[in-house]
Amino acid sequence: MAKYQSINPYTNETFASYDNPTAEQIEDALNLTDALYHKWRHEGPETRTATLHKVADGLREHKKEMAEIMTREMGKMIGESEGEVDLCVSICDYFAEKGPELLKPEPIDTKLGDAYYLKQATGVIMACEPWNFPLYQVIRVFAPNFIVGNPIILKHAHNVPGSAALIAKIIKQAGAPEGSLINMYPSYDQLDQMIADPRIQGVALTGSERGGSSVAENAGKNLKKSTMELGGNDAFIILDDADPEVLKQALSSARTYNDGQVCTSSKRIIVVKSRYEETIHELKKVFSSLKAGDPLDPSTTLPPLNSQGAKDKLTKQLDGALAGGAKILYQYPEIDSDGAFFRPTILTNVDRDNPAFDQEFFGPVATVYEVEDEDAAIALANDSSYGLGSSVISSNIKRAQNVAAQIETGMSVINGTWISSGELPFGGVKKSGYGRELSDLGLMAFVNQHLVISMPTK
Ligand code: NAP
């Protein structure tokens, strides 16, 4: 892991650095969050709803500042950063409105007695988050757990420490009690020690397969419950009856939103042969009309990747794919800048024996596959170690739903691309991880479903 530093990937300027915490600071954070958990055990979720609405208000008020720090730290286009803040406002409001009802005890139908289960907090949760949505990834864990009564210690990615600090500040200013979310900059060793500490009761990680397996291993060794939201190699399936306008609309952002750095970005475009020419024509049009520039400039549509390291990694991966037989169908012209720009690329001929076949390209690289029919599309979609999301484009919704049901993923969008909202569960299967965030399912991730049964008395 690199140091916690804010480096603008457009200018390469390092504008802030942050130290690892001392042992004493870690101890204080564990004590404070654990004490808050015990205090919250005596207070129902409804006592925290007004504060969570205030966090939403705080995000609205700090929208510009929050969006700018995200863009300056990881290069996201400013309009997308602002959209991310709006999404997080709605997620906070959703859990503030729905949380208490969803956390009511659940009656159990049994002849053995009067039974129900309580939905109780379990303790402090360690949240390890990635840089690609610096605010959204944190709010996905913070908002539901705040209502449940589980305090959070946040270990954000090393390249978005300023975003992490601002999130913690907004939550504090909204009136959330000290310890509701504590932001820290631990080393991996310090993180391991914290996860092993008995005051930590759960671990939520969003990130890569590499980071996920390492943190999950440590959580498992210490018998801590964990949720893993990992990478994806999502299929975007185009059936023969796809509506041309719907297809065009979906392709316009499917692989280029957030410069392709989205877990659920449509990385594999799988198209039946009758629609192949039209699809590559549209995709080339989208890729070639991007405008490279400063992500703080609203007219930019092609920002840099999040870091020079990410550019190097993606370049190496692309070279590997080409060495393995892949062909370039389209590549964006050279970009004259020292920023971490990557030339958007469309690949074909990525065969099963190519190392890239089962890899996630975390940037603007689309792989297109031409297939015979619907069955071949489903088979190819499922031929992956990952299973996060998918899209199906068809004008027959019943048919598309039937196709979606056959895809081994956690989420499928019909006639659209990546979507997220407070009430929609988010998560995957296979190497894309386990557990769900958001919705009623995400709310229960770190809840103790505590059975209470009164036996009949004579
Ligand atoms: P990453 O390297 O796994 O990092 C994610 C977080 O885990 C960071 O805070 C990172 O800290 C930490 N981490 C990584 N390795 C660790 C280790 N060995 N021990 C302790 N902590 C560790 O992920 P990334 O490459 O930055 O993020 C992109 C990945 O996230 C992609 O694969 C993407 O698909 C996935 N993602 C998934 C979802 C989802 O919901 N399924 C959403 C967004 C992104 P440092 O930064 O300090 O290394």
TrEMBL record:
InterPro entries registered for this protein in UniProt: Ald_DH/histidinol_DH, Ald_DH_C, Ald_DH_CS_GLU, Ald_DH_N, Aldehyde_DH_dom, ALDH_GabD1-like, GABD/Sad-like
Residue positions of the active site: E229
Record-linked CDD domains: ALDH_SSADH1_GabD1
Source domain of life: Bacteria
Record-linked SUPFAM superfamilies: ALDH-like
Gene3D superfamilies, per the entry: Aldehyde Dehydrogenase, Chain A, domain 1, Aldehyde Dehydrogenase, Chain A, domain 2
GO MF assignments: aldehyde dehydrogenase [NAD(P)+] activity; succinate-semialdehyde dehydrogenase (NAD+) activity
Record key words, sorted: NADP, Oxidoreductase
Record-linked PROSITE patterns: ALDEHYDE_DEHYDR_GLU (PS00687)
Domain annotation Aldehyde dehydrogenase: ranges: 3-449
Protein family: Belongs to the aldehyde dehydrogenase family.
Protein name: NAD-dependent aldehyde dehydrogenase
